[in-house]
Fold each of these.
Amino acid sequence: MNEEVIFSVKNLSLYYGEKKALNDISIDIYKNKVTAFIGPSGCGKSTFLRCFNRMNDLIENCRVEGEILYKNENILKVNPIYLRTKVGMVFQQPNPFPMSIFNNVTYGLKCQGVRKKDELKEICIESLTKSALYEEVKDRLKDNALALSGGQQQRLCIARCIALSPDVILMDEPTSALDPIATSKIEELIRELKKDYTIVIVTHNMQQATRISDYTAFFMLGDLVEYNTTDEFFSHPKDKRSDDYISGKFS
Amino acid sequence: MKKVVNNSEINSSQIMSKKRTVKDILRNVSTLVFSILTLGILIWIIIYIFVTGAPNLSWSFITSDYNETSVSLRSESDFTFDGRDFTFEDPNGFKSERWGVSFIDGKNNLGEDVIFFNEICENSYFYELIDYSTNEVFLDYSDQYVYSINLMLDDGTYQIVNGNRYSAEELVSYLDQAYLIDNLNIMTVGGGIRGSILTTLALIGVTLIIALPIGIIGAIYLALFAKKNKITMVLRSLIDMTSAIPSIIFGFIGVIIFIPFVNSITGSSGGSILSGAFTLAIMLIPTIVKTTEESILALPKGYMDSSLALGASRTETVFKVILPNAVPGIITSAILSIGRIIGESAALVFAIGASIQDNVSLTNSSTSLAVHIWVLLSHENPNYDAACAISIIILIIVLILSLLTKLISYLHERKLKRSR
Amino acid sequence: MKCIDESQILKNSKRKSTIDKVVGFLFLFVTLICASIIIFTIVLIAYQGILPFIKEYPASGNQVSTANLGIFLTGLSWSSSGYGAFFLVINTLYVVLLSAIISIPASILTALFVVKIAPKVVGEIFQSGIEMLASVPSVIFGLFGQGVICPIIRDFAFGIGLQTSGGTSVLSGAIVLAMMSIPTITLVTITSLRSVPKTYIEGSLALGATKSETNFKVVLKGATSGIISGIILGLGRALGEATAVSLVIGNAVSGPTFNIFDIGSTLTSIMLMGIGESTGLGYDIRFSLGIMLMVIIVLTNLILNYVKNRVTNPFKKPSKILNACKTLIIYIKTYFKKDKDNEESSK
């Protein structure tokens, strides 16, 4: 594996108060690949994902040991606001702000002090095009984003992320609140996006992982059980627990 | 001993025995009676206040001064009748054909019997009377009544007619015998509430300017910034507990702290609207914190997270996403505060004072509408008419405010529903 | 795609982090101010309330120059020659108790009617009416009390051969306070009745209880803690109410009186009495009454909260202090009982 490593996690443990939620995890995330985190619910995969852009800082009593290197720099040393512009995140529930579509997409840019109208417009159109939404909404950029359908809202959230031109996009079960058609559109979009971005996606849907990801990490009870290329992981799981999970003995 | 009930013994007549049915009916009727009583209190209050107050409620009542102002007038020294004729347009009132003026009996806003001017003919001699203080002709008789009049009669005697002892008819009969008015004392109708209305408005404005920013910031901190630890819990319960303090105690705080504070800054003496507003502000801050915090917590949880994930700071999130969406809640808390400011009396009696004023200024003592009512009622002779008239105004404002809050929450809910 | 300058973002981010810290600190400061209101209030009232007992005030005639704490705590008359507030405490509690006797049953039954018995539309109309009543300012209740209730009481007392001072009496005060606390208690009770789980009701109905039996025996039991919270709020409002009471109760300066047609007074009505005229000690002694009022409010709250905890949580062990109080009460009871027994045996 001679891919370029963008995130390198070393012996990471995470505690909620006294409870250990993640146990000594080491993993490398490769650039311009889709990495899927799978595992039964409550295994810590979402918690782990939120470590990459330090969203866990916001949770009380949350303590992290070990280190995550982002481009060979410890993320604890990186300014969190800067980190979050470089490492975007899409949440489980589509949650656009109750403002116009245009304002939603340009929110992050405006926060970075971009004020020029034509510049904002250009980036807005570009990000909407990239997130395969532009054709559907080009006539109503001034409309409230809450009027969009669930799938459209989620793609808008992706567009909002892309507008900041991040290196990595973290996705926390982005399709679990959507219907199958909207899901397939998002999956298609993810395959498109990996040309430009590194994507880390949490999913509890194994089929989805096989369809879109290049690498798969299997978590259970706070442990990283197995990490391999997706093909290898699903065809020849090395661990007994992975095998059981893939064959549906538990979920 | 436990009685074993044989199943076959329970027949239907026993299950719904007469006693049980009667009890059922009694229970239901008792609830009905008491709820009608409760609602009856409201209806009774409204009827009493409207019936007593409505006749007294007029535009002049709202716009006129509380204190009466008097003017002394006299005829010119070389005054003689020139034999002019008068035409009265209004058939009512007791007419003095000699002077071209008609009077009518009435009550001033304090409820005393007085004699009002009913009509003054265009060419009346009354338009030639001279003001003692300015030595100019006095023309504006609107809303004035006769307090006293000193007349030189044809038979050479000197007659003093007091407005509250003589009727309009008697006044006119003396007037028709008089050849000169030596001193006419007229008064504006007092007892108006203009000053109290202005005070109430000023109180609302200043109090909200002080309390809203502080309350909203407190709410933002508690809802979004504070860590969920013991200290926050203590802060929150302290703020909650503040609302259990009776308002009269806050009035004491006004006396102890804010009156000296305002006096030392503005050089005024005694209570003032500013000291009252400070007092009301500390009284209302807990409520504002509470309602605003609730409206912020009712927003979808994802706003903060997703905004932060886009590289915004907390401050930016608060001002760009959270606050614009919490506006309905903030407006609601402002409206609730206005309602409490209008209704508050005990605290203001201490923090501003209980002297009714017409010249309202921020650094002077005056009364709000509610305190005005209290002052009217704690007199030896309570003036129910005026008190009820003011109550009508207060009740209508309170009703409008409560309808407004309902409208806002309805609109907000509809908007949220549509967005889902 | 156009990109924002990396170094620009980094600079922005650092600035934003600083702003966040500063703003967070400022907001914390403002919140501390909000939370300290109550502490300041208590400390100031306590300080100013103690002053009349230690400071020398200018006095003339038979006025006292310093209030006496012993007289204050036990005295039965209130005048410039001696400020005794004990009778005020008794009278305040008596008036509020009378008002509670009226308001609590009325509120609970009204709430029950609104939530469970009335048809939906009627219930909603009643509820809006009660909400409206809750927003009526207290001074209007005072006006209504003085203009309507007092004459009624006067005529009623006259009818049964009693003289009243124009109808201003303890009873009028209690009625006005009850009218003011009814909407508060009712609204809280309505909320708690609404939150009684449906399963309770269905369970009771399935056991063959009638609807009204279910309402009175199951629904009310299920809502007890909410009802007590409502009572705490309502009694708190009644205890702290000043202007309305002062207009109808007659402002007696000695007591205590338990005759409901006699004029009485409460702590708050005395606080408002002669406010424009008095200075010096006669004014400052009000702050001492303020301490007393707050102590009474805190104590009633504690007692009612204790009752609430016992009712909702019968298995919870009472804390040490409460245990001590209980032992004390039992001790006092047995002591008095012994006295009684002695008396009886001596007879």
Amino acid sequence: MALKILGISAFYHDSAAALIEDGYVIAAAQEERFTRRKHDAGFPSHAIRFCLEYSGLGLENLDAIVFYDKPFLKLERLLETYYAFAPKGVSSFVNAIPVWLKEKMFLKDLIRKELKKLGDWHPERTKLLFPEHHLSHAASAFYASPFSKAVVVTVDGVGEWATASVCLGDGNKITILHELRFPHSLGLFYSAFTYYLGFRVNSGEYKVMGLAPYGRKDAESTRKYTDIILNQLIHLYDDGSVWLNQTYFSYATGLRMVPDAKWEKLFGFPRRKPEELIEQHHCDLALAMQQVTEEAMLRMTRFAYHSVSDGEARKNLCLAGGVALNCVANGKIWEQGLFEKIFIQPAAGDAGGAVGAALAGHYIYFNQPRQLSDSADRMNGAFLGPEPEEKEILKVIRKYGAVAHHFPDDRSLLAETASLLAKGKVTGWVQGRMEFGPRALGNRSILADPRIPDMQKVLNLKIKFREGFRPFAPAVCAEDASSVFDPPLVSPYMLLVGTVKKEYRFSLPENYTDLPLFERLYIPRSPWPAITHVDYSARIQTVHRETNPLFYALLREFKYQTGCPVLVNTSFNVRGQPIVCSPEDAYICFMATGMDALVINRHLFLKEEQTEKDKNKFSITTQPD
Amino acid sequence: MEFLKDLFRFLMQRKKWWLIPLIIFLLIIGILLVFGSGSALAPFIYTLF
């Protein structure tokens, strides 16, 4: 009988649940989407309830429930760290220990108590398992990949002790070959800069990545920052492992990532306060740090490649862990050309640990054989969440007195939507199952025409209410990708960065480098300015007919009507809010922002047709994220 | 009780006996923190840190 296993990640950030049956991921969702609290760290009751309802199972039907890390091992790290750094760290100790004593130390009981609220559960039949954090990440990447053998690399802030690992995946086995251990961590190194540059740790890292291209590669300040980083903060070894000079980091025992005063002395400017103006030196520092991170990732994957002698495994690379969301570094790894194929877990951060924990339970604890029947991965395009039901949409229409047009078939819906997009209308697009992971991949997306010169500005400031420097990603049919972008790549989860092909690049004005930061931003660089970043890079999503036929057809229709093969695809949310989940979330977000149209299943809502009274009723809170 | 068993098994497996005094210390502090807040024990806790 097929094993049914529930995976859980919780209590740190990005809580999530995933349900697998016979090794296939049936359902997975992040708790934040239901509670509407971004990065919700609470026990994922809503996500578990969804997974069970979707699969038609109760807790009593499960063979195992698997939590994504080992609490005692984490406690060991905590105690040993405080012991090693004592008497430093008292204030952090006083803050951390009560939380541990009240709940984290008794996690098993806490999980049982929370599960009991969700239904009958029989501990004697259903195992409660705790694989290691990095094993959960490795499992989320390897077992969900289409590869029978692969090199597996995981990199994040910290799990129990490990902060990065190199593994060999072979059949149903994962062998950990090398580990990097706390406090030396590439993820925490990145987060330290995220903090110093005024963004939120565990949330703003991708903003730093987006900021880096505004840095000046050849500038004296960038060179100086790189030297300081490499000479004072971090030692980068040939195998990609890092040693962090703890004199300049305070995360091990303090309540902040870094000692502000010491860093100010090092870099010559104070920590940027959240929401403060971004200046050139911030961008230069982001660039210097991003380049060091990329170098570490390149070395680590190279080392991983050479650590494995199996020729078959060396063809494939699997990546997971929060740092694997750094699509610029991923793009460089791909360009390096060592591996023939790369699979990056779409929920590479801690949320994906839920999938990995469940898969580790299936293949490692229950020792189930791994059969791969085709070349597709096991993530179903990351479309693993709830889908909008007709009755929910009709309820929204009734509740808000919304005006909607219903289309009888996909063809007419696609023709109208593509036509709206071609007229410059920014359109919310809610179809099918919600994505699992941080990226919207065409089911909970805001779409727009990338050819319109001020589209990036409009989307950032009037619709997403976020920082003006943030770039947008292109969605392109897989077959068209290589005609627009270099190098040729398959990037269904928007986790690889490429560049706009040379022949499409516009030359820049002569005085370009003298222009102020934000003036440089709005100079068109290609026929698709909204998706071309300042360094001509683009975080590409290749859309595949097999995993998302409707979105694929929309891109085709848009190309047919306009000749343009690309659409802007950004997540359907505003700053500080989770991506919308239900039709009601989508309608509220649509009404509260400058979006022009909203499509949910075959219902089209046009902003101009909604009554003025209704528009004023909606407000949405944006928060720093 | 199960918690203590699990903890003992974990320490056996990891051979980290030296952590026992730390954990006992932690548990005592924990008890003081849980039961001591707002009571006569509170000043004792503050002097510890």
Amino acid sequence: MNWLNWLDQFIEVLVALAAAPLLLGWVNMCRAWLQNRSAPSLLQPYRGIRKLLHKDAVLAHNASSLFRIAPYIIFGTMVAAAAMIPMLGTRLPFTAAADAIALVGLFAAARMFLSLAAMDVGTAFGTLGARREMMVGFLAEPTLLMVIFVASLMTATTALPLIAENLAAAQLAIHPSLLFTAVAFAMVMLAENARIPVDNPATHLELTMIHEAMLLEYSARHLALMEWAAALKLFNYACIGLALFVPWGLASNGDPIRLGLAIVLLAGKLAVIGAGLALIETLSAKLRVFRAPEFLATAFLLAVLGLLVRLLQVAR
Amino acid sequence: MLLRASRRPGGAPESALTTLLALVTAWLAIGLAGLIRPRSLEFAGRALFVAGAVVGLLLAIVAAMSIALPAESVVLPIGLPDLPVHLRRDALSSVFLFLLGSASVGISLFAAGYFRSGEGTLPGVLCLEYHLFLAAMAMVLLADDAYAFMVAWETMALSSYFLVTTQHRIPEIRRAGFLYLLIAHVGAIAILLAFGILQGGSWQFTFDAMRGAQLPPIWAFAAFALALFGFGAKAGLVPMHVWLPEAHPAAPSPVSALMSGVMLKTAIYGMLRITFDLIGTPTWWWGLIPLGLGLFTALYGVIFAATQSDMKRLLAYSSIENIGILFTGIGLAIVFHGVGMDAMAALALIAVLYHAINHAFMKSLLFLSTGAVLHATGERNLGHLGGLIHRMPWVAWLTLVGVLAIAGLPPLNGFVSEWLLLQAFLLAHEVPKPFVNMLLPLGAALLVLSAALAGYVMVKFYGIVFLGQPREAALHDAHDASVLERVGLVWLAAGCVLLGLLPAQIVPMLAGVVADLGINASAAVTSAQSWWMLAPLPARSISYAPLVFTLAVVSAVLVTVLVGRLVYRRRTRRADPWDCGYERINPRMQDTAEGFGQPIRHLFQPFFAMDRELPSPFDRAPRYRVVVFDRLWRLLYLPIERIVQRAANAVSVLQQGRISAYLLYSFVTLIVLLASVL
């Protein structure tokens, strides 16, 4: 049933779009609870986006059109990325067009546009943020790819849904290589989504900020798109992690009941991930920016180690 | 016996080779025509270059159509008596001729709008050198004996040397030119020696004889190693890379584009020709050498690119990186081919060929855009540029295409070749050799790291040159590129986009080329492949369909824009950027090129030798200065220079300046000779 698969694909993107701010709200809520504050509403990110959409946009005098189109491109790439990740089902027709390597490339494209847009106005913060973002990125990108390679070596494909399907079908066993890569992936996820210990989403302290520094010149609809895209990115990363390390429970066909089940299961998994994220953020301190490359280099080496362990296993 | 064409079995039509030769002759004629009115910029600098572009276009078309045709050869009785010139066109030549022709169209058109009067060499002479350079590169690709190859190779080196030293009145440029010439010749000697070994005792220097020669493994390896050294020196493989960052900034931008985009690829061609065609059966472990060197070169090049503050030097180092990627692919292909995994070897080689064509387009585009910036501002230093997207929108937006392509981002062309190479790397663990099969996949980690760093480099390059505020007041008067220059840039940018979108059309063609090299490529291109989807290797479900992918991303962006239009009803106004509560923001508050390179300098410290001057807290006029050196200069080149100097000093003892001493030398030589003969 080809059209059913496409419907599946469409539902998945819609779920990602709608649920991404919810995940962010959930993380913030858990964080507030853990830090003994009264929590903001779960819907707070939506309210933020709605507020921004009701404001006049302010652009710097020397902002070029690159600055204006970048939010749309970044948002569009994140939506397209959501279409490649098996969140609910594994029969995603779009993934034949773009595999996990293309997914990493798409994230890299979004990062590059974000950095270029940040450099466009030519303020000190913008360029500083762009440089730091690229510094984080050039270590995070290969790590993510290495993580995917390990899974791809186990399943002989680079298409993410097939990887998830094969891993889910495999005999339940603890693969040491997957353990290494899971840690590496968690570190990359923290770094790429501007979370503590690499960046702090809740601060505008100039010495430490990365992601927020790049958004300083954005306002209104542009900012709303950027914020939403950031939420979507977190959602995408969480779902990549689920597909690689907890691939069970994905619907293998377009059956509506199984799809509904998959949605419930996904919500449960994401709730756990969100709580875990909040826990990590509460327990760890923000690293100095100079230490961030060391953090990421550790992640990279862990991923490479995972690859090596996998190859040793195969060779044996 | 004017033109004795030898038909290969099968009796293919000779037309393609003859047409190609006619086009090469046309290039030569255009070059010579420049001497008719050497001082006229309109004639020699404009009209003839446009004619050269037309010839390039025809060459590209003929070469592209001849890829699938069987090989054909011809013997021309020119040159020394009894040493006719053998020429041959096969699929490999055709691919590289296509690369040469198609990239040269954009470069020649740009050059037609680029050269100004009163800059160094006369336009007519420049026109001759330029077209001689093009013709020589075409002859390198068509040569079928060692003599013809070396003559074309040397003509290529010399004509490009004269092009590099166009502004020969500046001492640094003369020095850069000399360095280039020196390394080119050291490399040429190695290539000559490789041919000397390859003839295998038959003293026949045609490539046909070399194909037939049975070499003992040790000699075959010696030939391979010499070829790797020689072609590596031409291509810029570390540690023979030092000429690139000197010669590329010295040359006029179209020449840099031609050298970096096309000439470096002739070295790749030579490497492929000798390894897979003339030697024919490379042993698998040979591949580890270019693989290791290539990975090191890729990382080395990109790390240095990140710390440069001269935009053309930055691009030169980026070329070194890409040469590293190409050699990595060649090495991988040799390993795969050597152990009999031909499908993977074919995949790696297809990636190499694809990347060679890609790099020709994207690097030419970037070098030409630096030329446009250089003309508009007179600046090469990133520290004096900025904000040019407002003054030069054409150049800026077209450069963005090149920047995204070279950073390896989908759906542009750089991504396709990297995707193919990574897919090949993912299979490296199946090589049936212990340890090697474990270490090879780690190469993918290095490859990916250098690809990610390339993104860093390109953000630095583009962000500092085109975005932000102008760092100098003079930049406000910068002008956009002229019409011809724009056409050249558009051609190359369009190439980057098309090569990115149509891999499913191009890869089967390249697979034919690879099959022609004796590698069974049938499994690399499968039946699952359709006109819109790339799906190599049937055993693995891997696929990439850039058209669908692009359509999805573009429609996602467009829907976002449309919905934004519908939902959003507020105004947009302009204001000053946020100034953090200080009085005003000035351009000096932006990150500099040095600042942008700082994390890389910090992280990869062992690679650099740095000369740093830090201000003390009590300085009245603080000065910060950092110069990054290539460590290999001190470790390798300066010692060699010292040895040469010392040897020269030792020999110079003989030089007395007195006629009696020289007569004595002759007398002693004569006595020794007589004594040894009698």
Amino acid sequence: MRDIRKRYGMVDALRGPTLRVGPGEVVGLVGDNAAGKSTLMKVLAGAVVPDSGEIVFDGRPVAFASPKDARELGIEMVYQDLALCDDIDVAGNLFLGREPRKAGGMMLDLSKMHADARRHLDALNIRIPLTDIPVGGLSGGQRQAVAIARAVTFGPKLLILDEPTAALAVAEVETVLELIKTVSAQDVSVILITHRLQDLFRVCDRLCVMYEGTVRADLDARNTSLERLVSEIVAHDEGEKEGERR
Amino acid sequence: MTATRTGTSQRVVTTRSARANAHIGRHAQTIAIAVVLVVLLIFFAFSADRFATTGNILNLLRQIAPTLVVATAMTFVISTSGIDLSVGSTVALSGSLLAIVLQHGWNPTLALVAILALGALIGFVNGWFSSYQNIPPFIVTLAMLSIMRGTALRATEGYSTPIDGELWIVQIGQGRIAGVPVPAILAVIIALVGWLVLTRTPFGRYVIGLGSNGESLRRAGVNTRKVGLTVYVLTGLAAAVAGVLIATRLSSGSSNAGSGFELEVITAVVLGGTSLFGGRASMLGTILGALTLGVIANGLVLLHVSPFYVQIVQGGILLLAIFANSKVWAKFGAIRK
């Protein structure tokens, strides 16, 4: 059982949200701008060190000083700005920083790299027929797919996707959503941050709504309506009254 | 649950023509410069009597050897979207100091090693300021250009220092193996190693990545600063090699050697299709670019055109090459700059 919880004290950006993700579960994280979604995820990916609170991963409390620590435990984050090198080919981007080598580590093993890339892409049903073209020549959806595939090849247990479908054409959004389903079917937990609410119902198991640095609702995606979700995100007046009543 | 391959996802498949476009886009400029070179070769072969002789071709290869050596290293620097303007001054300093220490009776082998180490050190200083201190390499290497030239002038007091023709080290610049000048052989070997390193090693991959999207490379866990520093060490080292080649060919070390050399080297690299904005590099293009510059200089001299025109033509070519680089080739498929 892999439970992730985190709490922290009265920090401005994050006012003690608690988030739980089970294995293979897809959790949609939504909220208005500045609700703290990205900060929360950066904490989880080790890019931001929280003032207080705890993260429990695989049943053990953990603390991350850098993204490397989080990565070693199996937490991968795909950032909004893609983080691909346009001029390097698909296989090169998939293995950037950990290329298969030969000749005592001196040379790139290009044939193994392309073969491995092919295998990874096929395993994820990513439809990119050629691994030797620069990613700059791919469509937005394909680039996003490569970025996600890259994170998946690290063998993560938890994958965080920050706005993976922003600025994509409709058909490309489909590609990415299919990919998220494929990844979660391989028992990888996914946290999906998006403003495209209709996407959430397509792939998510649960929906967490953040508001002013707290998680204010934890909904089951299967029996929540779009209207309910929207009201949770924007109807903050009502929410605050509720809070006062409590 | 496995995802089904729906019709919609098939519609974003990369087509054959996209692949062809990407390939042409990456190689268009290399092909273009090869065509230009062939046209020039034919033109000079018919217009200049002594151009297409074995002797002249070998001489041409020897002439461009220093340019090719430094251009190989410069291809790495420019691929990271950096620039090294100090190479010409480093050529002058290393050639002058080589002649001076040999005159003081140093062992030639020791002198050679010391000069190469000096070149690497100059490159290290360039790289440290550029890569670790994030000062624009244009400024850092411009300052070093001035410092190194001044040091060379101070060391020689402006005079040329002769190198004893009996020393073995002179063979580096003047020797021949099976009739082929040693500098040409060295240059070709260095260029081939450069090509291998750029296209087939992790380091070459990171150099491209650094110029393409340095932040992405850093997040991938690569020590980008070290990569950024190393490329300047390579140009420093290559400039020292070029200084040795020039000084030993002329049997003299001069503080005026290599003035305008950085322009020639950068022109060769840009002409070959390497992008000044980084991320796109062609070592083959650099070799062809250096050859083209050499052919133009050599051919014009054989046609009895004033040698002063050579510099004008070179500057013009640089401008044209950058124009083509950013306006013409950018239209091809994969390039988004």
